[in-house]
Give the backbone structure.
Amino acid sequence: MNTWRFVMHGPDGVHYQNKSAFAEIAKPERIVFDQTSGPKIRMTITLAEEGGKTTINWRRLLSLPPNATRLGSSRWRQTNKRSTARRQNWRQWRDAHGT
């Protein structure tokens, strides 16, 4: 299985070590990989042609331990809100610039 390591640099100055492994590659429509460090996350990326452009669907399935709701729910909510806001800002920029 092919794996890779990378470091995400958070806006709070924290560096997050990550390791992921490909679970599936179905050319040209799907890539699936698992984050194997930290919270276990399965990412599924699908690509589809629509009107001469490529639509990308990015799905994230997060496996949390039983006590995660009690221990980290506010952190996850904050992170999710920031991610959602970034996606909305990007979509507004994309729509305004016609790309």
About this structure: The chain is about 30% helix and 45% strand. The first strand starts at residue 3 and ends at 9. The helical segments are 68-97. The chain has two domains: 1-63, 68-99.
